[in-house]
Write a structure and sequence with these properties.
This protein has about 300 residues and is an alpha/beta fold. It has one domain: Rossmann fold. It contains 13 helices and 7 strands. Strand 5 and strand 6 form a beta hairpin.
Length: about 300
């Protein structure tokens, strides 16, 4: 490896470590570094180059000294129009560090992912979908590493964060507690849709936009994990905006708003579809011991938590 290549790798790691060495990270360093284990030294150099560019893009949008420190994030399964809903929010509320492993990392990885799906690469492959899936599988770890590195830097510097994510991890409670400890107000954009619509949305994206974000298995499993995390969302979010998506081509409808201080406000009749979807999942999975929707409201409005 050349001296320049070694320096680029070093720069990438220093960006992720420099400011935060003595501080608790939002995404633990050992977890983030694991995303790089599969890559060769040359590939790590390329990822470091992409990190430098994407970091500059994301941080350039931040406004320091905001009156309120806010973390706003999507929650929902793949294909639930999360990116469109979040970017609409950002259009009306600029100044956030916008972090997303797909929309703000993978799509801008010009030294890695985009090289593997160039027009030449597509022309050399009989199956374009197979090529897209292969490129996604290879560079998804790198995109997660980049997104988490930028996320940690925004968190450490107390910048407003807009996070494109499914919010379906079992570690979300710990994640939210760290945000609260840092003084963040948590706003969640809950994006709900039918499994059928979400599958169609991802098929459309793959066929017409030449972009793969999730496997069929992920689409189904994360849609279920979304409902499983409802108690966590209600416990830790200061505000929740609910969206229902009947047809991905028509976009989402904001159907309700919730706040720990003012309670729930229904905005559209399709809110019943969202509540019924949660109820159906709850009835199908009694082993999860999920509270009713009304139970979630009652518990968290009466007992708002900061712990």
């Amino acid at each position: 490896m050349s001296i320049l290549a070694k320096l680029l790798v070093l720069i990438g790691f220093l960006i992720s470590l420099s400011v935060f060495a003595a501080q608790e990270l939002l995404v633990p360093q050992e977890i983030n570094q694991n995303f790089l284990k599969i890559y060769s030294n040359a590939e790590k150099v390329a990822i470091a180059k992409d990190l430098r560019n994407i970091r500059e893009l994301c941080l350039s949008q931040a406004q320091s000294g905001q009156k309120y420190l806010i973390y706003v994030a999507t929650a929902g399964g793949p294909g639930a129009s999360k990116s469109t809903i979040l970017e609409t929010y950002l259009h009306d509320h600029p100044g956030f560090v916008y972090v997303d492993p797909d929309q703000r990392a993978l799509k801008f990885m010009i030294n890695t992912y985009l090289q593997d799906i160039s027009n030449y690469a597509v022309a050399q492959n009989i199956s374009s979908p197979q090529l897209l899936n292969k490129a996604y599988a290879k560079w998804r770890g790198g995109s997660n590493y980049i997104a988490n590195t930028v996320l940690n830097e925004a968190y450490a510097n107390k910048l407003g964060i807009a996070h494109g994510t499914t919010s379906t991890s079992k570690a979300m409670a710990l994640f939210y507690r760290k945000l609260q400890k840092q003084g963040y107000k948590i706003i969640l954009l809950l994006c709900a849709s039918t499994e059928k619509n979400r599958l169609k949305a991802n098929e459309y994206r793959e066929k017409n936009q030449r972009f793969v974000q999730a496997s069929r298995e992920d689409i189904i499993s994360k849609g279920q994990m979304f409902f499983e995390n409802f108690p966590v969302y209600f416990k830790y979010a200061d505000e929740i905006q609910f969206f229902w998506i009947d047809d991905f081509l028509r976009g989402g409808v904001k159907v309700a708003e919730y706040s720990k201080t003012t309670g729930l406000k229904s905005l559209h009749r399709d809110f019943n579809k969202l509540k019924n979807s949660y109820k159906e999942f709850r009835n199908q999975h009694p082993d999860k011991q999920l509270p009713s929707f009304d139970g979630l409201l009652k518990e968290n409005i009466k007992n708002p938590t900061k712990s």
